[in-house]
Write a structure and sequence with these properties.
about 525 residues; alpha/beta; Rossmann fold; 3 domains; 6-stranded mixed sheet
Length: about 525
């Protein structure tokens, strides 16, 4: 059993409480997903649970964690710089448990995540791996330590669809405790039997949480049903209140008028009216007490509101956006160590097509997208914008979001940008934080806003939904789907591919192969 009692977490920089009096009990067999909007403290909670010292730099935490005999295994969102420099062999063998496993056990462990046994012994550094291979390496090392509790912070980021399926199986078959954060709605729907929802309401001035022992689909349905019921009950009570107040006002005015007009020669009638007014006022007091017990209007964290591109982003249906041919796609960097990843690549995009590219980790999808982006960004007949996997490539981490986006430096543009950032659920304080202090999802929002105000009509997106909460996911997918220009994207998000992409290509060693019927297969 794993237990948290009375945990309160406060952000040091702006003294904003992101979690208050939080309690949770997890038992063997629980597969709990933590959901919530970007910056709501999901990763901070996970870090504190594994090791309170990990969150000390930027957060104050008070509370009790009871681990009992549980052994925690933690998968962070990002590899440390120190681990990035290690070879795979160094990374795995520094754990003494590695030497306790037989070659057969290592092979079985690697097979659980679709890797070969030789993966453990490679001299390649972790920093040079693809995003998915990094996650796979971290998961394998975590499993080598034989934990009873898996704490997984975005394990679905960057891994290919085949590995996602293996991850789903791992979580579902785990006999002990799994607590994970993910933005992949399909993964959550297929694995979680418990939902921990962290929210910031009233413009992020108040935090609340919900723990529900049910599947994610059931939670979303039940939450909607409960909110609709509470909203209707609150509206009905307020309608009755208005009618009651109007009746009360008429009675009060009638008695008051009678009192002012009663003859002095009718003391008995005056006394009756005085008694009646006393009764009316008592009735008013009773109504005031009833009003204090009225059903409150339901409060929830609002979804982001944002539109990507306007009239300037419209692209003619017959326009050829790009015809890209490449005889050989090689690993980045060139030189004698460069490997050929794929041959005979051909990509054509016309009009406002939404193109999705899928493929195995290490197949070269990001390398290909960079090449395509380079061609499009150099063109003058289209206006292209690129979102890489690593946001730091484009963001100035020392600037605030407003400073980064305000190209003109004018006060009017600054005001507009603050309004748009507010629609993306940034607080006034967060708008003035350096970008490096923002969550991954908040950084992604800054890039999306940059794309929107740029007037781009072609977007090149590498994993666009990877840092958005499952509750924001539908908004992001609709935003990109409704973008009036062309979109070329890489994604492992099955809902994104099904809902956004007109055409899906798989990158193979023989080039791009269209995946016909992919949407029907993944409904």
């Amino acid at each position: 059993m794993l237990q948290i009692n009375g945990l309160t977490i406060t952000h040091k920089k702006d003294l904003r409480v992101i979690l208050k009096d939080f309690s949770l009990v997890l038992n063997h067999g629980d597969k709990a997903v933590i959901i919530g909007e970007e910056g709501n403290g999901k990763s901070t909670l996970m870090k504190w649970l594994y090791d309170p010292a990990l969150a000390e730099e930027y957060a104050l935490a008070e509370g009790e964690r009871i681990l009992g005999r549980e052994r925690l295994g933690y998968l962070p969102q990002e590899l440390s710089e120190q681990d990035r420099q290690k070879t795979l062999y160094e990374y795995f063998t520094e754990d003494e448990c590695f030497w306790e496993l037989t070659p057969k056990e290592l092979a079985e462990l690697a097979g659980r995540l679709g890797a070969e046994t030789e993966f453990f012994y490679r001299e390649q550094t972790l920093g040079s791996l693809s995003g998915g291979e990094k996650v796979k390496a971290q998961l394998l090392k975590l499993l080598i330590g034989r934990p009873t509790v898996l704490l997984l912070d975005e394990p679905s980021n960057d891994i290919d669809i085949a590995t996602l399926t293996l991850l789903e199986t791992l979580i579902k078959e785990w006999k002990q405790i799994v607590l994970f954060i993910s933005h992949d709605e399909t993964l959550i729907e297929n694995t979680a039997n418990m939902v921990v929802h962290l929210e910031q309401i009233r413009r992020k001035t108040e935090c609340c949480y919900t723990v529900a022992r049910m599947s994610y689909r059931d939670y979303v349905r039940e939450r909607l049903r409960r909110f609709e019921k509470q909203e209707q009950l609150a509206l009905n009570e307020r309608r009755e209140k208005r009618l009651r107040e109007e009746r009360y006002r008429r009675i009060y005015q009638s008695v008051e008028h009678a009192q002012t007009t009663v003859s002095r020669q009718s003391p008995g009638e005056a006394k009756n009216l005085k008694d009646k007014m006393h009764t009316v006022k008592a009735m008013g007091k009773r109504f005031e007490r009833q009003d204090e017990e009225m059903t409150e209007r339901p409060e929830q964290e609002e979804a982001i509101f944002f539109k990507l591109g306007g009239k300037e982003a419209v692209i003619p249906a017959g326009k050829t956006v790009i015809e890209y041919e490449l005889a050989k796609l090689r690993t980045p960097g060139g030189g004698t160590d460069a490997r050929i990843l794929a041959r005979n690549i051909f990509l054509r995009v016309r009009g406002a097509e939404k193109i999705g590219i899928i493929g195995a980790n290490g197949a070269g999808k990001t390398t290909l997208l960079r090449r395509v982006a380079g061609k499009l960004l150099a063109r003058t007949d289209v206006r292209a914008e690129y979102m890489p996997q690593n946001y730091e490539e484009l963001l100035d981490m020392d600037m605030t979001p407003v400073e980064f986006l305000n190209r003109s430096g004018s006060k009017e543009e600054r005001t507009r940008l603050r309004s748009w950032l507010g629609a993306l659920k940034f607080t006034a304080d967060e708008m003035e934080h350096p970008i490096r202090e923002l969550s991954g999802g908040q950084k992604a929002k800054v890039l999306l806003l940059k794309m929107s105000v740029s007037g781009a009509n072609v977007l090149i997106l590498d994993e666009p939904t990877r840092n958005f909460s499952p509750l924001s996911g539908p908004v992001i997918r609709r935003m990109i789907r409704e973008f009036p220009g062309a979109v070329i994207s890489i994604s492992h998000d099955r809902k994104y591919i099904a809902e956004v992409c007109d055409t899906v290509y798989r990158l193979t060693p023989e080039g791009l192969v269209e995946e016909s019927g992919w949407r029907e297969q993944n409904d």
